[in-house]
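Predict structure. Chain length: 91.
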Amino acid sequence: MQTSQNIFSYTLTNGVFVVDRNRMALFAISLNLLSGVGTFVGTMSAGGTAPSSVALTVGLPVTLSSDSDNLPLDGITIDCSGGGVIQIVGR
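Prediction complete.
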């Protein structure tokens, strides 16, 4: 039985952060653009449609999560290298 839940938190400033299941086991992340510009994009295609970046909006957090605690998130690129600050919180 699990008795605790660890939380990851990071403030990304003018940079890029990649969620990689081989380096980290994040099952859910929340992205909150604090200022400037920021985007996120996955790597999965759906029905032949390639992924494209999604713009974040200041003050409007986005949460991405896995359907299973056995399948961590993978291949998500979070980018605010054009001048932004994004809070990232994950589990």
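Summary: The first strand starts at residue 8 and ends at 13.
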